């Protein structure tokens, strides 16, 4: 059987290595230049590849194509494959064929990485034989070659879900659905939501769907009457029928598989969005038999991924928080809502058509200074000019941090939570967050 793999990043190279391990005839093609680390893996395995082009004759000679999530269906090579009726699948779909491990799969517009990492942490700390893979940045296919795990916790983007057909999750988690990546879905929320709901396809009565019962887009898109698995809705707003909810600083679970209360008071996660993430993670852990004590200890010891409401320093009783991953308005809303101290807010970048109106009341209540960090800050100044007492602007993150220090007083929080993409001044949100951390370190060292 001939397999053509489009894209030679983490997922593509992992799929190539698995295909070779299973005795398939593999060819890898990438329209861009392949990173040295991946080129070395392919060369070491003697897997033929090309970069900077797609040789259509060779690709279309395949029985099946595995494509990178970043390649849209409208790409010419995918259109040609469709004409020849060559199946196009994702790396996750391919990997799922070669393991009997159970999958705990997480998707959602916001919160999926935090929820994925938290579930993995809770399960691993409890002693389960568990692997981590997917959109988090690790190839499931490559892990399946050795297939050493009983469970895999897998973060899934909508792009990965689009090319999954027979794959089945044992536990599926959907954190929320808000507008994002709509250019890939013909600017249709219905099509984007349907993509997210593919996470529950093929489920049977012994499988579980953990989802946010407060999310209107999930409610519209989820075909509950025809769902084959068991639903576990969670809520902060008292949604009817919810099985998981908060009481004070504790999570209450009221389901057939478990009835009880988990103390979250020692968790370091900030904000309502992380309460949602924690409810989902606790439900998944309880489904797999993790004890209350193990969960509570895991919540206490969990360290989130960088750039997500990450405390990076304290100087002169001012706390600096890096939330560079907050590239949309909803993520910033949760950050502002979750912080109780007065805020010096650093925001801005490449606006993605943002509607900032939902942030106005929170900004009026909590934000004393807005430092606009971007090349074009007019929209931010226009929206918040009447509700935030002091507004400044800069294109230097070092100056933004120094200015924030001078305008803050003991007990304040300096929050980088941009609501925008980073590409006007930085390579990506990680680069922006790292530069913020470096600027804060200079202040902390001088305190």
Automatic annotation (TrEMBL):
Residues 106-285 form the Mur ligase central domain. Its EC number is 6.3.2.9. InterPro entries: Folylpolyglutamate_synth_CS, Mur-like_cat_sf, Mur_ligase_C, Mur_ligase_C_dom_sf, Mur_ligase_cen, MurD. Keywords: ATP-binding, Cell cycle, Cell division, Cell shape, Cell wall biogenesis/degradation, Cytoplasm, Ligase, Nucleotide-binding, Peptidoglycan synthesis. One of its GO terms (molecular function) is UDP-N-acetylmuramoylalanine-D-glutamate ligase activity. ATP binds at residues 108-114. Residues 307-420 form the Mur ligase C-terminal domain. It comes from the Bacteria. It catalyses: UDP-N-acetyl-alpha-D-muramoyl-L-alanine + D-glutamate + ATP = UDP-N-acetyl-alpha-D-muramoyl-L-alanyl-D-glutamate + ADP + phosphate + H(+). The keyword Signal does not apply. It is found in: Cytoplasm. Its main location: cytoplasm. SUPFAM superfamilies: MurCD N-terminal domain, MurD-like peptide ligases, catalytic domain, MurD-like peptide ligases, peptide-binding domain. Pathway: Cell wall biogenesis; peptidoglycan biosynthesis. Belongs to the MurCDEF family. HAMAP family: MurD. Cell wall formation. Catalyzes the addition of glutamate to the nucleotide precursor UDP-N-acetylmuramoyl-L-alanine (UMA). This is UDP-N-acetylmuramoylalanine--D-glutamate ligase. It comes from Pontibacter aydingkolensis.
């Amino acid at each position: 059987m001939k397999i053509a793999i489009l894209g030679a990043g983490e997922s593509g190279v992992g799929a190539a290595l698995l295909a070779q391990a299973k005795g398939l005839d593999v060819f890898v093609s990438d329209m861009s230049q392949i990173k040295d680390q991946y080129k070395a893996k392919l060369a070491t395995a003697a897997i033929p590849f090309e970069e900077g082009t797609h040789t259509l004759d060779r690709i279309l000679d395949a029985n099946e194509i595995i494509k990178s999530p970043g390649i849209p269906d409208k790409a010419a090579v995918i259109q040609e494959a469709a004409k020849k009726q060559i199946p196009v699948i994702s790396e996750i779909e391919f990997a799922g064929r070669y393991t009997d491990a159970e999958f705990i799969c997480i998707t959602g517009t916001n919160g999926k990485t935090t929820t994925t990492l938290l579930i993995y942490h809770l399960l691993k700390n409890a002693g389960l034989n568990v692997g981590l893979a997917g959109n988090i940045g690790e190839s499931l296919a490559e892990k399946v070659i050795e297939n050493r795990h009983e469970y895999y916790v897998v973060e899934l983007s909508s792009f990965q879900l689009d090319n999954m057909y027979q794959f089945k999750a044992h536990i599926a988690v959907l954190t929320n659905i808000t507008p994002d990546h709509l250019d890939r879905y013909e600017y249709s929320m219905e099509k984007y939501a349907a993509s997210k709901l593919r996470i529950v396809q093929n489920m049977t009565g012994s499988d579980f769907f953990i989802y946010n019962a407060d999310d209107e887009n999930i409610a519209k898109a989820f075909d509950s009457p025809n769902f084959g698995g068991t639903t576990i809705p969670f809520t902060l707003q008292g949604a009817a029928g919810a099985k998981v909810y908060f009481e004070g600083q504790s999570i209450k679970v009221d389901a057939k598989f478990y009835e009880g209360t988990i103390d979250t008071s020692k968790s370091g996660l900030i904000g309502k969005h992380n309460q949602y993430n924690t409810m989902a993670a606790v439900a998944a852990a309880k489904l797999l038999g993790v004890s209350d004590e193990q969960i509570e200890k895991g919540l206490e010891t969990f360290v989130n991924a960088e750039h997500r409401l990450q405390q990076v320093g304290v100087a002169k009783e001012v706390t600096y928080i890096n939330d560079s991953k907050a590239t949309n308005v909803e993520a910033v809303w949760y950050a502002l809502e979750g912080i109780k101290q007065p805020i010096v807010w650093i925001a801005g970048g490449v606006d993605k058509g943002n509607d900032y109106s939902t942030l106005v009341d929170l900004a009026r209540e909590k934000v004393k200074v807005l430092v606009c960090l971007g090349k074009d800050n007019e929209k931010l100044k226009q929206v918040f000019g009447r509700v935030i007492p002091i507004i400044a602007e800069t294109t230097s993150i070092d100056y933004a941090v120094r200015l924030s220090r001078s305008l803050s007083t003991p007990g304040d929080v300096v929050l980088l939570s941009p609501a925008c993409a980073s590409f006007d001044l930085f390579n990506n949100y990680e680069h922006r967050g790292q530069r913020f951390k470096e600027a804060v370190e200079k202040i902390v060292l001088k305190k």
